[in-house]
From TrEMBL:
Gene3D superfamilies in the record: PCu(A)C copper chaperone
PANTHER family tied to this protein: BLR7088 PROTEIN, COPPER CHAPERONE PCU(A)C
Domain of life from the UniProt record: Bacteria
Chain residue ranges for the region called Disordered: 33-75
Organism whose genome encodes this protein: Actinoplanes lutulentus
Name recorded for this polypeptide: Copper(I)-binding protein
InterPro entries with a match to the protein in the record: LpqE-like, Lxx211020-like, PCuAC_sf
C-alpha cells in the first residue's frame, strides 16, 4: 500500500489552524478573566457604598441619641438634671427638675422664660386651710454645693398660659436667669402626670418673671 505524505503546504495549513485555535482560546480566557475582574470590582464598590450608608446610618443614630440627650443642661454655675413638663391639653402646667449648684456660694434663680408660655417661679403655701400655689418671692435659692428640687407639691416653674396644648413627648425650651445676669438654658420633655392639681392664688404677682423669651 502506498502512503502519501502530506505536502509542506498541507502541514503549514494544519499548524496555522492549530495556532489560531489556541489564540482564540487565549482571547476567550482573557475576556472571561476581565469580566470576572469587572464583576469583582463592581461588587467591591457596591459593598463600599453599603458600608458608607451603614456608617451614615450609624452616625445618624449616634447624633440622634446625642441630640435627644436633654436630661441635663450644665453651666459652670448650675446644672439642670432630669427636667420634665406635665402634659396638659389646656390651661396652666408646670416644669420640674433637680437644680445642682456647682459653686461654693449660694445661687439664686430670679426668673425663667420659654417660647411656649410666660413663666412664673412658684411655690406651695397654706392658705385658708389648703395648699395653694403662689409666686416664689426672692426666687429659688440653691445653697452652695447643694441641690434644689423643683417637684410637684413644691417649687416649680409655672407655665401660665401655654400657646398650644402640651402633648406627651413635646420638647419645651427654657432659660433660667440667675442673680447677676447669668443664664442657663435647657430643654424639658412633656409626660403624663396625674398629680400637681393644686389651686393657684393670683394675689401675688411676679411681673419680671413672666415675660416671653
Amino acid at each position: 500500500m502506498l502512503t502519501v505524505a502530506p505536502s509542506r503546504r498541507t502541514r503549514s495549513a494544519v499548524v496555522a489552524a492549530v495556532a489560531a485555535a489556541f489564540a482564540l482560546s487565549g482571547l476567550a480566557g482573557c475576556a472571561n478573566s476581565e469580566a470576572k475582574t469587572d464583576t469583582s470590582s463592581t461588587g467591591t464598590s457596591g459593598t463600599g457604598t453599603s458600608t458608607a450608608a451603614n456608617s451614615n446610618a450609624s452616625s445618624g443614630t449616634n447624633t440622634g441619641t446625642t441630640s435627644t440627650g436633654t436630661d441635663s443642661a450644665a453651666s459652670n454655675t448650675l446644672t439642670v438634671r432630669d427636667p420634665w413638663v406635665k402634659a396638659a391639653d389646656t390651661g396652666m402646667t408646670a416644669a420640674f427638675a433637680t437644680l445642682v449648684n456647682n459653686t461654693q456660694t449660694d445661687v439664686t434663680i430670679e426668673s425663667a422664660t420659654s417660647p411656649a408660655s410666660p413663666i412664673e417661679l412658684h411655690t406651695m403655701a397654706m392658705k385658708d386651710g389648703k395648699m395653694v400655689m403662689e409666686p416664689k418671692q426672692g426666687g429659688f435659692v440653691i445653697k452652695a454645693g447643694a441641690t434644689h428640687e423643683l417637684a410637684p407639691g413644691g417649687d416649680h416653674l409655672m407655665l401660665m398660659s401655654p400657646s398650644a396644648a402640651v402633648k406627651p413627648g413635646d420638647e419645651l425650651a427654657f432659660t433660667l436667669t440667675l442673680a447677676g445676669g447669668g443664664t442657663v438654658a435647657f430643654t424639658a420633655v412633656a409626660k403624663p402626670f396625674a398629680g400637681a392639681q393644686e389651686s393657684y392664688d393670683p394675689g401675688m404677682t411676679m411681673p419680671s418673671a413672666s415675660a416671653h423669651s
